[in-house]
Amino acid sequence: MKNLFLAAVILFTLSLPAGGEEAAPLEIHFIDVGYGDAILLKSPEGGYSLIDTGPPRARGKLLDYLRERGVGRLEYLIVTHPHPDHLGNAAAVLREFGAANLRDNGEEIDRFDEYLTPEMVEEYEREFRGDADYSLLRAGENIEWSGLSLEVLWPRDLAASEDWNTNSLVLMLRHGEFRALLTGDFNTAGEKIILEKKAADLRANLLKVGHHGAGDAAGDDFLRAVSPEAAVVSVGENPWGYPVEARLESLEKLGIRLYRTDRVGTVVFRCRAEGTFARYPGEAPPSESGSLR
Q1: Helix, strand, coil distribution of the chain in percent, nearest 5
Q2: Residue 128 CB partners (closer than 8 Å, separation 6+)
Q3: Are strands 26-30 and 134-136 parallel, antiparallel or unpaired?
């Protein structure tokens, strides 16, 4: 019996991380890039991936943030769709840090305006899509990286819609029991299809609210299906008044705690495999994170 007890103690000790320390968490950094998205993932093993790269005007801020955290070569650089507040700094990030894998939804970029210029698209096509490590993502694919999983829930077929937001990549990030739903600019048109066809299990602990809290995203049925404990709106000054009051009211009614980057700046969560997560370096006081407006 004594020998069995000693063997059990030895096995338990060997199962602990070096030094008996608790396993490192997944870190999710919702970087404050103003009106745009840039989500940095740090795996428990210490590697980095980046989802979206913010608008061109946030280039210095984004690159500084990555440098300050000692980010080296990225494992994945993913752009959810080709609006300039998502792809705006992809080429700059690649030039400085590099990435082993480049992914986007393959949307044809054939519309330009004062924010998305032909020159910006030419650079993106050449340096991002022209890279040998580039390929597109479709629903049903699964990225396994450093013990994490990124399941592609959307889109299935770009031909189904001409709306770039409807075609935005939607990714479910998993770390053990923890789940975060990252929605780019996904809108209610796409949400309706997913919900009607019951195409995916949307439940998640944490939600990145689609389209910066616009009125055409994160509908009530979608929010109920996801049922997150907390949500992040990545937003800055914009002419459309996002996030709109109706979205804020929906989140409040459902008891979802909201973090807005225009109010509290960059938001970082440490997420553990048993499904718990907390803001780092600590919860903001209620006047910052608990207020939806």
Answers
A1: 30, 25, 45
A2: 77, 79, 87, 90, 91, 94, 102, 104, 134
A3: unpaired
Res 292: pLDDT: 42
Looking at residue 38, its pLDDT comes to: 98
Q: Tokens 């407006």 correspond to what residue?
A: 293
User: How far apart are alpha carbons 128 and 20 in whole angstroms?
Assistant: 42
> According to the model, what pLDDT value does residue 198 have?
87
What's the CA angle centered on 93, arms 121 and 133, to 5 degrees?
A: 75
Per-residue CA distances from 88 to 54, 94, 111, 175, 250 (Å): 6, 12, 15, 28, 30
In this predicted structure, what is the pLDDT of residue 23?
A: 87
Under DSSP, is residue 248 helix (H, G, I), strand (E, B) or coil? helix
Q: In whole angstroms, how far apart are CA 69 and each of 42, 54, 63, 83, 178? A: 10, 18, 10, 26, 24
| Strand order through the sheet with 230-233 | 142-145, 148-154, 170-175, 178-182, 206-208, 230-233, 257-260
Spans of all domains in the chain: 25-289
Question: Homologous superfamily of 25-289 in CATH?
Answer: Ribonuclease Z/Hydroxyacylglutathione hydrolase-like (3.60.15.10)
The tokens for 169 are: 């990549």
